[in-house]
């Protein structure tokens, strides 16, 4: 084979992975990561981490257009996963009820939010007295700070990275919807982009936002981050 033909073949192969339009190609291992809906007001006053707190009932009503937009945006052939916390299950059910239709929801323990250990339940104003490192500008604690009896953001990134690799192998070529948590989605971005946990905390991941990652033969690709449905 001539050098010209080799170069042409390589160029053609790489172009197969380009995203030049709104339609996402089929047959690719694709993760649709959704942060759960807003939790109730009292929970938002403290470090709730991996505590099981309920969603805000008012927001469930007010944000119905966002649930309908997610129901229309998500692929129908997806395998669904949720964390062990009820706020992810209720968010998934609200999407189903908004027009997506009922689907089996598989509980995946490694999708759970950062365990803040002894710091869970602390009001935010009381947290600084317990920190061993200055907090991150966009997260209550530094990525390497580990709460007593809990886990650091670095450990969350390691946990979530192993999970993504495992699901990508198990569900190769499939769509995977995971309703999870802000910290988990930032950890997924850290894994996909091969960046430090401290850097990943600079991403904004809002409630009900959608982040799409793809696992290709050539590596991970980030399609969208913090996409707000219907906006």
UniProtKB/TrEMBL annotation:
One MF annotation (Gene Ontology) recorded for this entry: phosphatase activity
Domain of life: Bacteria
Name by which UniProt lists this protein: Phosphoglycerate mutase
GO cellular component, one term: cytoplasm
One Pfam family from the record: His_Phos_1
